[in-house]
Each structure stands twice: as C-alpha cells, then as structure tokens.
Write a structure and sequence with these properties.
The chain is mostly beta strands and 207 residues long. The protein has two domains: 49 residues, no CATH class; 150 residues, Jelly Rolls (Sandwich), CATH 2.60.120. The chain contains one helix and 16 strands. The strands form four sheets. A six-stranded antiparallel sheet has the order 5-16-7-12-13-14, with no helix packed on it. Strand 3 and strand 4 form a beta hairpin. The protein is elongated, with a radius of gyration of 24 Å. The N and C termini lie far apart (49 Å).
Length: 207
C-alpha cells in the first residue's frame, strides 16, 4: 500500500494516548503528551511550539489580629508561590519604633540576598517599616514582593501611612531554593501590639 500522508498520520495515531495533542513543529506533525492535571496549553506565538503551563492566581492565606504580643505569624503559604502581598490595617503598638515583616519556611526565616544591595526600609532579611508614630490607630501598610524568575531572590517594596505621614522602602531576600511557607509581623524591641490586624496573600498555582 502506498505510503500516503493519510497513512502516515494513521500510523502515528496508533501510538496516541488519551489527552495527547498533535501539532506542527514546523517540520513534522509531532505528539505532545498530556500535561500535569490543572495545567493549560499555552501558545508561544508564531514560530514556536505550544507547551503546558500552570495557571496562577492570588490566594488568600490568612489574617491575624495584632492586638497583643510582639510577634504575629501567618502560616499556610501555598507551594510554588512566586508573589507575596502583605497588608496591615490600623496596626498599632505600645511604642513608636518600627515594625518588621519577614518570610521563611519551616526551618527558619530567610535572610537578605547575597549580592543585592539593601535599600531603604530593609535590614538582614527584614522588611523594616520605619515610622515615627505607630501608636496611631489610622496606620496602614502595604507591601508586595515577587520572586525574580529563575533565581532564589525576591524583590519588593513597602508603603505605609498614618493618614498623613508616609514612608516607603524597597528590599530583597533569598529563599535559598525553598518554598515560602509563612510570614511574620513583629514589633521592635520591647513594644507590644495593641490594635489592628495584618493579612497575607500569595500568588501561586491553582491546584
């Protein structure tokens, strides 16, 4: 029997499995095997082959009251997180120093990135939210950090306001290849929290 294009394609389909996708790679019709459950087929534009990829979205991780104590932790950051967002609402404490925000995994807290210069509002892996009057009950902060693609380094910034005075900073940390699983907000020195709460969100794959 003649080796026609139709026969060649029929022969290829004999090796096909449920979930396979066939496409033209510019030279031949080739097989793309099924992706991981929950992945989507992403086109790469003209002259490139399609590929499976994950779908990411913002996830609410949790909220914790800052009405007592000096170290308030939120756990449960999803695996594969590449973005973090922390929001403080009406946070106040007994003193007028700084608040500190830090991220880590089950074995410890991450430090500042090697080779990256610390910016304003950043010290030893801590996002330091400097303010002169944290006792103000109208005090808010917002910070967002993103992992630099292909590295263990994260970069982000922070903005804070008490309804009048604003402070801003930028900083870095490195996760040393580990997933972020938790964050904590703490006071400086011997101060204790007495009002408000903070929330944590994660940009992570849909599972």
């Amino acid at each position: 029997m003649a080796d026609t294009p139709g026969r060649k394609f029929a022969d290829m389909l004999k090796n096909s499995n449920q979930g396979d996708v066939w496409y033209d790679n510019g030279t031949n019709i080739v097989q793309l095997t099924p992706g991981t459950a929950g992945y989507f087929l992403q086109t790469q534009g003209a002259g490139a082959n399609p590929a499976w990829d994950q779908i990411y979205q913002w996830h609410y991780v949790g909220n914790a009251a800052t009405t007592s104590g000096d170290d308030i932790e939120i756990t449960g950051v999803p695996a594969g997180t590449t973005g973090l967002r922390a929001v403080g609402e009406r946070v106040s404490c007994s003193g007028t120093n700084t608040l500190r925000l830090q991220f880590g995994d089950g074995s410890g807290w991450f430090s500042a990135s090697d080779g990256l210069t610390s910016g304003a509002g950043w010290s030893s892996g801590l996002i330091v939210i400097n303010h002169t009057s944290i006792a103000a009950s109208s005090w808010f902060f917002y910070t967002e950090l993103w992992q630099i693609q292909g590295t263990a380094d994260w970069v982000g910034d922070v903005a804070a306001t008490d309804g009048g005075t604003q402070s801003n900073g930028i900083g870095f940390f490195t996760d040393d290849g580990a997933d972020v699983t938790r964050g904590r907000l703490s006071t400086n020195s011997s101060d204790t929290f007495d009002n408000g709460s903070w929330s944590l969100y994660a940009y992570a794959p849909i599972t």
